[in-house]
Automatic annotation (TrEMBL):
Keywords: Methyltransferase, Phosphoprotein, S-adenosyl-L-methionine, Transferase. This is Heavy-metal-associated domain-containing protein. GO terms for biological process: methylation. The keyword S-adenosyl-L-methionine applies. It holds the Pfam family HMA. Residues 215-265 form the HMA domain. The keyword S-adenosyl-L-methionine applies. GO terms for molecular function: metal ion binding; S-adenosylmethionine-dependent methyltransferase activity.
Amino acid sequence: MNEISCCTVSCDKPLDQDYWDAQYKANTTGWDLGLVSPPIKAYIDTLKDKDIAILIPGCGNTYEAAYLLEQGFTNITVIDIAPTLVKIIEEKFITNTRIQVLLGDFFNHKGEYDLIIEQTFFCALPPTMRQKYVWKMHELLAKDGILAGLLFNRKFEVSPPFGGSQEEYDLLFKNAFDFIKLEKSDNSIAPRSNSELYFEFKKNGAVKVNLYEFEGITCSGCMNTVTEKFAAVKDVLNVSMNGNFTEVLIVSTIEIPLEELQKIVSYDDHYKIKKITQ
Ligand SMILES: C[S@@+](CC[C@H](N)C(=O)[O-])C[C@H]1O[C@@H](n2cnc3c(N)ncnc32)[C@H](O)[C@@H]1O
């Protein structure tokens, strides 16, 4: 299950705005493909409606957005936390009214999108933020909205990027999204061949997806107990706790009252649960 996973960078310094901006300033942007990722290009080529609202979070140099513009899409938003990068792409797209370039933290962003494109943003986040990522993506998508893109299907010795596996993504996204595709990508660029999964997930609008702060757990055994207790609640479909036991994602068919969740963990005085609303 979820052990606390550490990495060179995230334990030494936070992966915050300063960290990412420094990478752009120093030009240490090894993730930058210099072109639209082929599996994403192939997916874009299948889209008929050019007026759908599209978001690209952690957009970087956003060759995906450039390709969308070339193809005539009219409603594109890109967001990145690194000011140095955002200044460059603002200038690049300055005369184009079909794209909005935002400087900011994706997790504070508000909006409603038909499609969100994932391209090396998920893997740039500390793994402890993965539950928050699922919750935020679900919130930002319109009814029947699609989250599509690429996820790594491998581990890395030095991170970021942070790797993962199909099994992990299955457990993380299930019930919040309907899986249209989650499969080995057969058209990744050569350096990433056999190491990416291509996915298309449709928002499950019939469920409640809530994220809670959790306090008091200190070991994975206790986490498993708490997770199992929440999962046993009638109407709960999926429970996933992050690797440092501070956030829990609960997918359910109806809203579960906070008091009920707190009562379930009241056997330990240290356990406190609080709903995250922003
Ligand atoms: C690995 S890079 C990928 C960039 C781009 N998607 C690409 O493939 O070239 C991750 C990007 O996410 C941005 N980022 C990291 N955390 C962010 C956050 N919380 N909100 C918005 N952008 C963020 C970084 O500034 C960086 O540009």
